Amino acid sequence: MNLLKKIVLILCFLRPKCNYEGKITNQKMKNKINYHKYNILLLFISAVLVGCSSDGPEIEQPEKIYYDQAQKRMNAKNYYGAIESLEAIENRYPFGVYAEQAQVELIYAHFMNSETEASHSAAEKFIRLHPRHPNIDYAYFMKGLSSYTRDREFLTRVSDTDLSNRDISGAKESFAELTEFLTRFPDSQYAPYAKQRNVYLRNMIAKNELAAADYYLTIDAYVAAIRRANYVIENIPNSSENYRALKVLEVSYDALGYSNLLDDLKVVININYPNQESIQKSQQRNWSWNFLNNTKPRKSE
Fold first, then answer.
1. Which regions of the chain does DSSP assign to beta strands (E)?
2. Is the pLDDT assigned to residue 298 strictly greater than 80?
3. Residue 168, CB half-sphere, CA atoms under 13 Å: how many?
4. Contact 265/250 with Cβ under 8 angstroms?
5. Contact 201, 175 (CB under 8 A)
6. What CA–CA distance (Å, rounded) separates 299 from 301?
7. Which DSSP category does 55 fall into?
8. pLDDT at residue 215 greater than cutoff 80
9. Model confidence pLDDT, tens digit, residues 73-107
């Protein structure tokens, strides 16, 4: 940089209004104009985004309005909207009049919205927070019911798919939780539904065990087949598959040459199933999900 330019820079520093090489003043004016344009553009974009994100400013509503809104939405089968209203009560009025009722109704709303994991978590949370609540039996019932709902899927019901050949770990968990519910609340209004559901699940679990036993018979693994059949008879009593389990034992004892056991087994079959020549028909389809349409948690006083 030559000496002349250095002098001009020093003068411009002392007198900011000077026009260094005819550009400084014009550049400042352009910068100010661009700055104002940028601010106006930001305000416009913010207004548009706010307008798109909601129908209007969010207004704090009284607790009862949220609850009434949730009831209207559930009656209209708008369970997603009902969940929003019930969660608003839970978050904004955690100690309000409707807080506990909103929590128990969230269990139902999540379940009817096909969010079974959320329903199970809501039930566990309610049991943990309100162990003496009047609706505690409902929470235990829905906890067990939501553990296994694969047979509730539309395609499964229409096609009458046999689910016993698939993973039934959820069915076993559901059976255990509903058994706990029946032990704790034998006189609950939901007990008849739990008993019906457990019959369905018990038959499914027994069929799953015997599906494995049938496979072992095809590969001449008779000892393994005997173990599966004995498990059904000893641990899943009164299932629809007891006769089938006995027939598996009959085939296995005959193949292994256990004549004494075979003779005793034939006596048992003749006494308990004198006129039955074929495997007992499963009664799994006696269970129906339709009862849920009119089964909501009762309103606590």
1. none
2. no
3. 22
4. yes
5. yes
6. 7
7. S
8. yes
9. 999 999 999 999 999 999 999 899 999 999 999 99
